[in-house]
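Onboarding guide, step 5: your first structure request.
Type a short instruction followed by the sequence, for example:

Predict the 3D structure of this protein.
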Amino acid sequence: MTSPAIPLHRQAQPVDSFMRNLESRLASFDIFGGQEAPAPEPSKEDVQAQADAAAVFGTEAGARLLEWLADRSVRTALVVDPLAVDPARGWMLAQRHEGRNDMFYLVLSLLAAAKDEPAPRRDGPQT
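The system replies with structure tokens like these:
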């Protein structure tokens, strides 16, 4: 049996030294004095976009359009066969898929802001 390239007792040393001074290290990042960072005020263009999104997607036709967008973005699975596609093309397909999802969630965040609701999260439980 061979020993690991780096002895086990040395692998944990950087973590141990970091954990010893964790409170002082975390305190150095606290630039708001324990308070939550203030939310930026939306610009005039943002407020107008929120109102426009609420007007467009607040109708029955807008709801159908939103469902269509969801079907073409977040409800579409990304399946890339690694043997059929070169890695660069697979990466490009994944980025295009993420771009579609980002645009859909941008529309949802506009609608949520127009209704004074929290923006939807992309992952994890919706609490």
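Each response can be followed by summary notes, for example: The longest helix spans residues 87-114.
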